[in-house]
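Below is a concrete protein record.
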Amino acid sequence: MKNIHNIFEKYHIRHYNFGLILLVISIAMIGVFMVGSAAPALMDVQLSGVIGGIILMVVISLIDYKWVLKFYWPMYIVNLVLLLSVALFGTEVNGATRWLRIGDWLQFQPTDLTKIIVILFFAKFFMMRKEQINKLSILLQGLGLLFPSLVLVYRQPDFSNMVTILIVFCVVVYLAGLSYKIIGSILAVAIPAAAVFLTIAIQPNQTFIQGFQQDRILAWLNPEEFADATAFQQINSVIAIGAGQLFGKGYNNDSPSSLKNGNFILESQTDFIFAVIGEELGFVGCSIVILLLLLIVIICISIGMRADDLAGRIICGGIGSLIGIQSFINIAVATQMIPNTGLSLPFVSYGLTSVISFFIGIGFVLNVGLQPKNIQRRGDVPL
């Protein structure tokens, strides 16, 4: 009983961030309706994922994150086992092996959970080494521990999620207290290296990326030449968003001029759900979705600034940055600002693993918020 008491701390209800809960439920319900418009048969499935995610979020929010982080090495091992299982036993869909299937009733994408585990693992890892964060040996240890996950995700192949995980890791290292001098040195090398990589990646017979990935970059650079092939999705997405104008054509409308209704937007329930939002809800609807996501990110960061320890700050900043980065990439793809990547829009796109994983992340943020800095919880009125 004592162990259970330690796990489920007594929290004061005034520290429970109901505003954040309202925001994530609001954006998730928008996602349910938009998935229902894009693919009616999947609406109930998406709703079940949101309900399950909310339950998990509430349960996790009441479990002491400091206790959970004691198991950071088992979490690390579980993550690698899941990613290795994908490589060995994964289900192939559209040329990519990213899913694990259990029987005929469960299929999930471990990479979505990897993003959350990476944040939790390195929150504990760097907190234990916070006085040594600027030592090269510690940074190399962190990169070495991250490397297996990056390789396994890349081999699925899933370059976009690999890049997302790497960016989130960089944010985590920054939050851990990395020196600005080191950050400047890294950027001085990374930016030219990225430019060189992009230049090489579009050359014939290159071996850095796969053919379909190169085609996506070329289609982004020269959309007119690929209008009937690789650039088809993004071009139609931009047209659909523009066609929605200010207030859109109406939710789940039957307009024959709708690109969604004409099946001109493939994967409209997942990667290009923002195009459906733009066409049906217009500029206003798009702005509301972006505003909700932005507020979620800001509140996560705000909670992190009041966290009781470094691990709590890293968790909140990491989850907030993950939501912000992935939202930016998804919307940037839908508006043709960057090459097509295949990342979901947090809480909105169809995908049970993605939705539930983000709710799990918010659950940890809420628990950090229940333990603000310099607050004595013993004797408070329990939640």
